[in-house]
Write a structure and sequence with these properties.
mainly alpha; Arc Repressor Mutant, subunit A; two-stranded antiparallel sheet; 76% helix; globular; LysR_HTH_N; sequence-specific DNA binding; HTH lysR-type domain-containing protein
């Protein structure tokens, strides 16, 4: 579950291009977000500066694939909740 949680956070950070903005939205300190995504950063070499988040070409591919998976999972969850 930690991996899925980190992937979901990665998607949010990549969309927002900011750890701080995501942290504010979900009510999680920036330092906690950074720790949760740290293993993914190592695996996919996410480039982070103090000002913004930038995705490499490989990061962008990873992001797009994971986002499609999470979108499908959310749709399946939402659909089953209506039964």
């Amino acid at each position: 579950m930690k991996l899925l949680s980190a992937m979901a956070l990665f998607i949010e950070v990549a969309n927002a291009k900011s750890f701080r903005r995501v942290g504010e939205v979900i009510g999680t300190p920036n330092s906690t977000l950074c720790q949760r995504i740290n293993l993914l950063e190592i695996a996919i070499r996410l480039h982070r500066t103090t000002r913004k988040v930038e995705l490499t070409e490989a990061d962008q591919i990873y992001f797009e694939r994971r986002k499609r998976l999470f979108d499908k999972a959310k749709l399946a969850h939402d659909s089953s909740a209506n039964w």
